[in-house]
Amino acid sequence: MRVPDVDSDEALFELRFQPTVALVSTVRRFVTDFYREQFHDADVSHKLAMATHEMLENTVHYSIDRRSELVISLHRVSGQYVVTIQTKNRATEERLDKVRHALEEVVSAEDPEALYNQLVRRAAKRRDGGSGLGLGRIRAEADLALSYAIEGDTVVVTAEGRFQQRLASMLAMDS
Amino acid sequence: MIMIDIPNIDANDLRAAPNYVDGQLSLSFAGSADSRSQGAIETMLGRVHTEAMRLGVPEVAVDFRDCDFVNSSCFKAFIVWLEQIQELDSEQQYRLRFFSDDTKAWQRRSLQALSCFAIELVHIESKPSRGGS
User: Fold this and answer.
1) CA separation (Å) from B89 to B53, B54, B81, B86?
2) For residues A24 and B69, what is the distance between their CA atoms, to the nearest angstrom?
3) How much is the ipTM here?
C-alpha cells in the first residue's frame, strides 16, 4: 500500500465549551478568519465556516448537558489540504435515534444535491421548528464528506474534504 | 401614498428592511442570519406575503448582496414563504427575484436550492456588490 505524502498537521484548533446560538456565530466569525488565513480563498472559507456553524448549531440544540467539542484540523497531503471538522456531544436516546437516521440518510446519499433538494421539499412541510437541512447542506454546498459514530450516549460527527490553497501568484492578481 | 405594514429587523447581527416604491416591493438583507433571527425573518416574510397579495404586485425583489451568512433555519423561512406562494391560485401568485453579489459564490449556490424548489417562481440575478469591492 502506498503511504500518502503527509507533511504533518499544519493547523489544529480545539474548543470545548457550552455554546449558545450567539457563541456559535462568534466561533463562525473566528473560524472564517482562520480558514481565510490558511486558504486565502473567501469561497473556501465560507464553505468551511458554514459547515462548522451548522454542525455546532446541531450540538447546541441537541446536547444533553449543553457541552460541545469542536476540533478542526488541517493536514497537507500531496499538495492539498485535508480539512477535518469534528463535533462531539452527548444526547438522549430518543435524540440519538433521530440523529442516526438523519445522518445515515445524508452520509449514504449518492447524489448530495438531489438529496438536498429532497430535504428542501421536506422542510417546507415541517412545523416542528427544525429545518432538517443543515447536514444535507454541508454535503451539497460545502464539498465535504460526512461520517459519524455513536459511542454510548455520545455522537461524533465528522466532515472532511480536500481543498487547494490559492497560489501567491493568484493572490497578487486579485490585489 | 400607499403604506406598507412590514417590520424591519435590526438585531443579532442581521438588518432587513422592506421598501415599496413605484409599485415595486423589495426587501434588503445585510449581515448574518442565524437561529436567533429565525423568528423575526418568519414574521417579516409572513407580513411581506400578506402585503404582496394586498398590493397585487407581480414580483417581490429580495436583495441578499450585503448578507454574509444565512443558516439553514433561516433559509427554511424562505422555503416556507415560497410554499405559501405556490399554494395560491395561479392568478394570485407572485415571483421572487433574488439579487446575489457576484463576488460571493455561496449566495448563488444557496439560492439555487430555492430555485429548484419553485423554479417557476424564483429568479436569481447576480449583480456587483453594493460596496463596489
Assistant:
1) 11, 14, 15, 8
2) 13
3) 0.93
Chain A residues inside the 8 Å CB shell of B104: 42, 46
Say if the Cβ atoms of B79 and A53 lie within 8 Å: no
B22 min Cα distance to partner chain A (Å) = 32
Tens digits of residue pLDDT in A114-163? 999 999 999 999 888 789 999 999 999 999 999 999 999 999 999 999 99
Read off the pLDDT of residues A28-39 as tens digits, 9 standing for 90 and up. Answer: 999 999 999 889
Largest CA distance in chain A: 53
Q: Which domains does chain A have, with CATH numbers?
A: 6-167 (3.30.565.10)
How is residue B67 written as a grid cell?
448578507
d(CA A9, CA A114): 34
Q: Does A162 touch chain B (CB under 8 A)?
A: no
Q: Which of B14, B38, B72 would you mutate first to test chain A, the one with the most A CBs within 10 A?
A: B72
The H-or-E segment that residue B92 falls in is: none
Cα angle value B71/A108/A8 (rounded, 5°) = 75
Q: Which domains does chain B have, with CATH numbers?
A: 9-127 (3.30.750.24)
Give the relative orientation of helices B105-117 and A42-62 as an angle to the nearest 10 degrees: 60
Say if CB A157 and CB A134 are below 8 A apart.
Answer: no
Q: What is the DSSP string of A106-119?
A: HHT-S-HHHHHHHH
Helix axes A134-142, A112-125, angle to 10 degrees: 150
CB contact under 8 A, B106 and A47: yes
| Closest CB to A120 among B103, B104, B117 | B117
